[in-house]
Each structure stands twice: as C-alpha cells, then as structure tokens.
Amino acid sequence: MVFVWITAFFLLIALIVLIIYQLMCLADLEFDYINPYDSASRINKVVLPEFALQGVLCLLFLLSGHWLLFLFCAPIVYYNVRLYQQQQHLVDVTEIFNQLDTEKKRRLFKLISVVDDLEHAGG
C-alpha cells in the first residue's frame, strides 16, 4: 500500500513539473523571450511523456483498487487519447501564436486536475 502512494506521489510531481514546464514555454513565447520553433519543439518533446505518465498513474490507481482516484484520472486520460487519435496533441509551429490562449488554458486545466488528484491522493 505504501508503495502505491509513494509511486503515485512521484508520478504526480513529475506530471506537475512537465505541465509547468509547458506553461513556462508558452509564457516565454507570449512575452517574446523565445521563438516559436524553439517553444513548439520544447513542448512537443514532453507531450508524449506527459501522456504516458498520466496513463501509468491512472492504471496504478485502477490496479491498486483506488476507484475514486481512478475516476478522477480517467477523464484526463480519455482526453489525452482523443487528442492523440485526432493528431492534435502536438503544438504546430506555424499556428502557435493563434492557439496560444487555447494551449495555455488546456495546460492550466490539466494542472488543476493533477493538483486535485494530488490533494485526493494525500487525504
């Protein structure tokens, strides 16, 4: 049982770090500290690891019998799978300025849901 909680804690911390990194890249782009190509390539490098970590975390909750935490994780995993299937999971270099607000909102929503998972896992 302790192994599950420790593993979940470190997975959640890794997810938070990845999402904050993506938000920082978008903020740097917004304030013109970085060019669109570098920002998009940095974000695209961590998108699939973020999806994988979220899936592993959800699977961990499912297999360990933590149904409530699984139900909190499942919608985000479903959302990630849909983005991947529709090939909308990567940031397009040519459209990044037009999609800046949408991408920031998407990541903020994910950050809020991961922090919510962390609160429920700790309590």
From TrEMBL:
Q: Does the keyword Transmembrane apply?
A: yes
What's the protein's topology in the membrane?
Multi-pass membrane protein
Location relative to the cell? Membrane
Write down the InterPro entries for this protein, in alphabetical order: Cornichon (IPR003377)
Under the heading SMART domains, the entry gives: Cornichon
Alphabetized UniProt keyword annotations: Membrane, Transmembrane, Transmembrane helix
A GO cellular component entry from the record: membrane
The entry's family comment says: Belongs to the cornichon family.
What is the protein name stated in its UniProt record?
Protein cornichon homolog 4-like isoform X2
**Which gene specifies this protein's sequence?**
LOC120109467
